[in-house]
Write a structure and sequence with these properties.
It contains 10 helices and 6 strands. By secondary structure, the protein is α/β, with parallel strands linked by helices.
Length: about 220
């Protein structure tokens, strides 16, 4: 099946694209986009991969579902295009960045610059129906993105996986912890963060310290 995705990833995932479940998934997605308003736009579905080639990936942040409001989702977890109000979870990410690495909080929520530095901003499900959170879950996307995580774990060394919240933490079973780094905390959503499960995790400074140890360039958050 012909999938428009960055060449590096296309080679790594070529067997996956040929599996029956993926063919069924693509047919489902095409049908949904034809019948309903869905996000992100078709050309952005694989943007996380396009901005962050397999060979360049150093850090992986896992989200669950794309944003389902107008104009929000653009293929990168937790990120929204410039000009779109910053969502609550991302506000809390920025607040932690401010206290952790003294980052001046941006006036936008576009995390494309992270992706271009080797941060794979991967949602478990890559599409969603407008205003219906989770509407494209359990249709095949999770099989695909689990395979992405497995490939990264198997074929690379020294990656830093940031697993925020219960859903992301379950993905740790796909990662070889003897050759990669796994940092976990509560989710940055207000519900979790305000209970004390997010703030103070220092994941951004810890990530850069681990990259520094490996003589890899640090992320400019």
């Amino acid at each position: 099946m012909e999938v428009q995705i960055e060449a590096n990833w296309k080679s790594i995932l070529k067997d996956e694209f040929e599996k029956p479940y993926f063919s069924d998934l693509i047919q489902f997605v095409k049908s949904e986009y034809k019948s309903y308003q869905c996000y992100p736009k078709g050309s952005d579905i694989f943007k996380a991969f396009d901005y962050c080639p397999f060979d360049d990936t150093k850090v992986v942040i896992l989200g669950q579902d794309p944003y389902h409001g107008p104009g929000q989702a653009h293929g990168l977890c937790f990120s929204v295009p410039k000009g779109i109000p910053i969502p609550p979870s991302l506000i809390n990410i920025y607040r932690e960045l401010k206290t952790d690495v003294d980052l001046e909080i941006p006036d936008h929520g576009n995390l494309e610059s992270w992706a271009r530095q080797g941060v794979l901003l991967l949602n478990a499900t890559l599409t969603v129906r407008a205003h219906e959170a989770g509407s494209h879950q359990n249709k095949g996307w999770e099989l695909f993105t689990d395979e992405v995580i497995k490939k990264l774990s198997q074929e690379k060394v020294g990656l830093i996986f940031l697993l925020w919240g219960g859903y992301a933490k379950k993905k740790s079973k796909l990662i070889n912890a003897s050759k990669h780094y796994i940092l976990t905390s509560g989710h940055p959503s207000p519900l979790s963060a305000n209970r004390g499960y997010w703030f103070g995790n220092k994941h951004f400074s810890k990530t850069n310290a681990l990259l520094d140890q490996q003589n890899k360039s640090k992320i400019t958050w």
